[in-house]
Specification:
Blueprint: E1 2-6, E2 9-14, H1 17-30, E3 38-42, E4 47-51, E5 59-65, E6 68-69, H2 73-80, H3 86-91, E7 95-98, H4 100-103, E8 108-109, E9 121-122, H5 145-157, E10 174-177, E11 185-186, H6 188-192, E12 202-208, E13 220-223, H7 224-228, E14 234-243, E15 254-255, E16 285-287, E17 291-293, E18 295-297, E19 316-317, E20 320-321, E21 327-337, E22 343-353, E23 360-362, E24 368-375, E25 382-383, E26 391-393, H8 404-419, E27 423-424, H9 433-442, E28 450-451, E29 453-454, E30 466-475, H10 513-522, H11 527-531, E31 536-542, E32 550-552, E33 557-559, E34 569-575, H12 576-587
Parallel strand pairs: 1-4, 8-9, 11-27, 12-26, 13-24
Antiparallel strand pairs: 1-2, 3-4, 5-6, 5-7, 5-9, 10-14, 12-30, 13-26, 14-22, 15-18, 16-21, 17-20, 18-19, 21-22, 23-24, 23-30, 25-29, 28-30, 31-34, 32-33
Amino acid sequence: MTDLFVNEKFIGEVENPTDFVNRTKIERRKNKSLSGFNIMYDEKCDEIKIYTSKGRALRPLIIVENGKSKLTRDHIKKIKEDEIGWKDLEEQSVIEYLDAGEEENAYVALSEEELNEEHTHLEISPMNIFGLCTSLVPYANYDSSSRLNRGSKTQKQSLGLYAANYLLRMDTDVSILHYPQIPIIKTAMHDFSNYDKHPSGQNIVIAVMSYEGYNMQDAVIINKGSVDRGLFRSTYFRPYVVEELRYSGGLVDEICIPNKDAKGYRSENEYKHLEPDGIVYLGASVKEEDVIIGKISPPRFLGELEEFSIAASIKRESSTAIRHGEKGIIDMIVITENEEGNKLIQVRLRDQRIPEIGDKFASRYGQKGVIGAVIRQDDMPFSASGITPDLIFSPHSLPKRMTVSHLIEILGGKVGSLAGKYIDGTTFDVEPEKKLRKELLELGFREDGTETFYNGLTGEQLKAKIFVGNIYYLKLKHMVANKLHTRASGRIQLLTRQPIEGRSKGGGLRLGEMEKDCFVAHGASLLLKERFDSDKTIVHVCENCGLLAIYDKFRSIEYCTKCGNNTTITPIEISYAFKLLLDELKALGMYPRLKLKSKY
């Protein structure tokens, strides 16, 4: 007997499992009221499992009976003429939904030509093995799966028009591409997903070549002329939110221009953009440390508040200023109330981003890289017909990664832009490369996509023919302006006296052994003196017992807690973290001795 489980609960036993499963499937297909469950037979464990629970991932497949698909030519004709739809196909048992369990017992064919008597189902389209973003990658069947995975990820990070009402929204950390374009090479999914309503890239002229070494590894060289004409220009939005909080005892925050007697008052220059109500004016050009919402709060601790003293009137300054490393123009101000009835102020900052060295770009095939140089148009290489590429891509990025579709898109993009048409790059159903080559030849170009190029600096003809064409490129959200991190001096940790962590808090940059080796190899080893003494401290050591001695600076007295005054005490320079280690060892009952020797 075979055990029968429904949603993991044992409910009984079955004599003939295969016959039971087949009869159940037939009944499900006949009676639509029974749909919504899946059944599988696990031969190894000799168990039948039925699942009806919500939240299962289901996928549609065409039913196959006796080696023939139930989706006939007649169905396809009626679908094209809008006589029947998806629901009709479900009701006529042409299509059914399978979950991961039932799929174990299914034998699915990719195409109708492959069908035989053993098949149980047929894929609607072989493209269904991909998700939404991966199916937007053209010529995907020419690439390895790992590159498609990366191509899918890069499309999610690309800038475009994410929502039509972006001007009315207060989204955190978003960018809008100024001139998004529809790709010349599309897949069927571009049409199904209405991609032309929210594109996220631009069609550019690309040359595959090395040039002056600025596109080594994955770096790209970009044409300054194209950038000046608006290529890959975007706007970055950042919201700042402030709430007028209420505290126990009837104390409240106050949004205003802080008085000079407020604790922690900044300089007058930092409040210059505030209007009388304490909020910045619309269209103000602000930079880091500029206050955009002035606020004063009651004292933080009750001990500070004494009824019969001057301290009662002192409030602390708690204004909101522009974050470290940011700048821009005040784009929108919203004054409202939250659900608790507290005053809420939202200010949106707008910053125009022009492509610069360090900004990240990618094609749809996981070929991502940062700008290595922005070169003037008259210094860029140019073709015999006078075409200057917008971007120069390194040929060394191609052999190991085997992104053949990157090259085919350059060829197809060239054909599409010259012939004035969109090229179909749908996976497993692409416009053949031979056809593209033939069309390119008919348009008066070399069929392999290469052209004669000239050096923009010297005017000499380059010895090699350069592969050039059009490709859809994406600007990614990783911009160097959001990642720059510098620090001279600032906040330190209380315990170790070393700089705090984190770019947002104005923390330090950690230098490890490998970074140290880079400085030494570069001939900048003196920089390590500054880098590695962030917690430099001077301690006095007793030369007799090796313990840290005490030095009273005000009375000019130095003595050892163990040996007293009759000993030699020498000041030395060590890291405070090491001094902390010595203290912790002493707390454990260990005796750390410092033996001093003369340098000379």
